[in-house]
Amino acid sequence: MPSIICNDLCKTYRQGDAVIKALDHVTLEIEPGSFICLSGPSGSGKTTLLNMIGGLDELDSGEISIDGQRVDQLSKGPLADLRLHHIGFVFQAYNLIPVLSARENVEFVMQIQGMPARERKRMSTAILKEVGLEGMEDRRPAQLSGGQQQRVAVARAIVSQPKLVLADEPTANLDSVSAEHLMELFRELNENHGVTFLISTHDERVMRYARRLIRMQDGKVIADESQNND
Amino acid sequence: MSSARALSLAAMSRLSWRYLWRNYRRTSIMLLAIGVGVWAMIFMTALMRGMVDQMVADGIDALPGLVQVHDPAFRDDPSIENSMPPPGPALRAALESPPVEAWTRRVKVPAMISSERNTRGVTLLGVDPAGEIALGFDPASIVEGRFLESLDDRGLVVGQKLLERLETELGKRVVVMSQDPDNNVADRGFRIVGVFEAKLSAQEERQIYAGLATTQALLSMGEQISEIAVTGGDYRDVTALESRARDAAGSRFEVLPWTELDRYLGLMLGVMDGFVLIWVVVIFLALSFGLANTLMMAVFERVREIGLMQALGMKPAAILYQILIESVMLLLLGLLLGNLLAIASVLPIRDGIDLSMVAEGVEMFGASSTLYPALKAKDLVMANAVVIVLGILTSLLPAWRASQYRPVEAIART
């Protein structure tokens, strides 16, 4: 079970002559099985924080550890292994592989993990049914609507039941019914399987599901509060 | 387990195949370019190889033989003084078994031939007609009259061009003059009984054939001969043949392979192998720019997807393999197309292309007027191997670049 510790994270980006502080001395601890929403205006550092925890980007300074393993010190190969076996990503812009069908996209991670084909098929069929895409397994991304593509991306992120799911605005392109359905699915995975969720969002409906809400602004954590959502 | 290993070859191949045909126009154009390039490599090599093979074969026929045995001084001074005795029992026995397929003995001396109108310097060949034919003289090259029939045939066979130079014709008499061992003029009248055409005009103009015994009698040289010519096996490897002749002839005589007897021809063969390699590599270099560009574009247009794959846990090595597999697929398809095109181009002309329009030109460097393309397995293998090996090397840069993207930057690309 991941215990995530972020200690004094700093990250700056250059935009022309301007230096933007994406993360400004961020310190966090995330308990296993948490359901956390990161909120804040655009440019507040939510996505950067998710990318840092997922090992997709490099810190300027600070430390991140997951289950005692220093993520910021891992090289590319071990980082890829960490993401493969422990982290599921849901991106705002779906990010599906366009030359693969919905089922193949979902099976992609399991395939890299070396899971047998029969098992992959069983699990992908079940998860695609769970996200409401039964009968659309063989469609390519271009043949799916935005909402359907996002559901495929979610299915891919959770199908192998990672211990941590990092979701960047997962409902941004979904209608309210689909968004509700997705969040119910996240909650079910969190409560029944102990999957830790860290979700960046502007969406108040999503925030209602969180048991902990972290507000960010200008790269800083300005509020970190628990909330009762039963 | 590493992702490079876990994502099976079949899965990577499927992914690569789909990416390959994602932009089918670009892939088709690149396939066509590789196919035409490979076609040019193989087809042009077959033509060049055929020309050189023909030059070598014609040259060996004109020598004749793959190996010759002479008196050590004969090549510097091919006169009657430097003749040699006929082969003894030991040499004969050695020449009657493999790897020797045929052999003959000849007298070969400089001579003058005179008709009633002209005189020309020639090489008088006293030959055993059966042995000469076995060594490569083509009876079908006799365009008028007949070839010699026996060792003591009293007729003379001359080339078509020489006949024209002498302004004489079949059936007329000519005088052949040379020197005997005592440095006296030896001359004799011969009736022209046959006229031959040769692939090499020099042979047509300079060589005249008479019976071996008749020539020996003319030159008062008894049983002496000028050379023994031996053939057998592939002209590219005459080591065994040369060893056999050398062992049997002993150290008294000089035994030389055709590559030494006609160094120009031997050199041509060596140069040809090098030239084919250079030709194939030059064509590939032209192709490689297109290949590298195609792969660069293929990588560039899916930077975001490469970043996504990395984010999902695909290791840089697996990304590199996936791009390389895509490149190998492109190369293999291009090779298939090129090989088929080349074979389809060579088959209809396998019986030769008539170069008589430019035959005068090609004869200047020893080629014949009919060009037979020679599609050799080793040339096919070399062209294919060069394209695959250099193609993979060319693909390494775009593949490596793809594997080195930082996921967050790659995913952010639009």
What does it look like?
The complex is a heterodimer of chains A (230) and B (414). With 230 residues, chain A is an alpha/beta fold. Chain A has a domain at 4-93 and 163-226: P-loop containing nucleotide triphosphate hydrolases (Rossmann fold, 3-Layer(aba) Sandwich). Chain A has seven helices and ten strands. Chain A has a six-stranded mixed sheet, sandwiched between helices. Chain A has a four-stranded antiparallel sheet with strand order 2-1-4-5, with helices on one face. In chain A, β1 and β2 (18-30) form a beta hairpin. The two termini of chain A are 23 Å apart. In chain A, 47% of the residues are buried. Chain B has 414 residues and is α+β, with helices and mostly antiparallel strands. Chain B has two domains: 3-59 and 266-412, no CATH class; 65-261, no CATH class. In chain B, the strands form two sheets. Chain B has a six-stranded mixed barrel. The longest helix of chain B is centred in the first third of the chain and has 39 residues, at 24-62. Chain B is elongated. Residues 1-5 of chain B have low confidence and may be disordered.
Helix content of chain B: 40-55%
Largest sheet of chain A: 6 strands, mixed
Largest sheet of chain B: 6 strands, mixed, barrel
Strand order of the largest sheet of chain A: 6-7-8-3-9-10
Rg of chain B is 31 Å
Tally of individual helices of chain B: 16
Mean pLDDT of chain B: 84
Strand count of chain A: 10
Strand order of the largest sheet of chain B: 2-3-8-5-7-6
H and E string of chain A:
EEEHEEHEHHHEHEHEE
CATH topology (fold) name of one domain in chain A: Rossmann fold
Report the CATH architecture of one domain in chain A.
3-Layer(aba) Sandwich
- How far do the termini of chain B sit from each other? 32 Å
Overall domain count of chain B: 2
